[in-house]
Amino acid sequence: MRKPLVMGNWKLNGSKPMALDLVTGLTKHLANIEGCDVAIAPPVVYLDYVQKLLADSNIILGAQNVDTHLSGAYTGDISADMLKEVGATHIIIGHSERRTYHKECDKFIAEKFAILKESGLVPVLCIGETEAENEAGQTEAVCAKQIDAVIDLLGVKAFNNTVIAYEPVWAIGTGKSATPAQAQAVHKFIRDHLAKLDASVAQQVIIQYGGSVNDKNAAELFTQPDIDGALVGGASLKADAFAAIVKAAESAKK
């Protein structure tokens, strides 16, 4: 049985005092969580600081991005080896904000996936459609294309021990969220799409939902059979709200 993962994406938010308060609150609220994995992804400048704060907790350290190179003249970029050295294990790639603001294409994101796998890190691959694509009935085609970029480069077995985060772009930071039934339909499509090539890979891959997940809507989302936790944005900046989401995931999958 898949163990759900709830991951907090802090995005471009934070300070040392904020990180201290948030991590202190999370470690207190989540000390006895066993049925759900928990990860947080602070901005890169706080990774080392947060890693030290997490030293005695069961919370996983993640990061929000990685470069395709391990070293060289790539000013401002962060390598997989650097992330690994500071203790980050789950790395978000392909987030719609990176795709939009930094013009990252499917091929480039697949290359990031490859470097993470080579480095022994866990890719958290974000996929999802825009509002226009959703209204045009292209949700499945868009998700398949974004997944297939990885399969074309690495093969389907690359999805062993990885995470896919389905995040409809129209639901990120908007307050809108897919209904549990809508989200489940897409999650099932994603799993079935992988299963066409390898059923065992499809069965074990963690597929999170993301897009305005909060402590009010999380429980119903997590009752769906193919939703394995969440990638959480704004609500991950509040210890009580984030902890409630984690506990909802644990309860739903018992």
Automatic annotation (TrEMBL):
Molecular-function annotations in GO: triose-phosphate isomerase activity
Gene Ontology CC terms: cytosol
Residues annotated for substrate binding in this entry: 9-11, 173, 212, 233-234
One BP annotation, GO: glycolytic process
Protein's UniProt name: Triosephosphate isomerase
UniProt subunit comment: Homodimer.
Gene3D superfamilies, per database record: Aldolase class I (3.20.20.70)
Function of the molecule: Involved in the gluconeogenesis. Catalyzes stereospecifically the conversion of dihydroxyacetone phosphate (DHAP) to D-glyceraldehyde-3-phosphate (G3P).
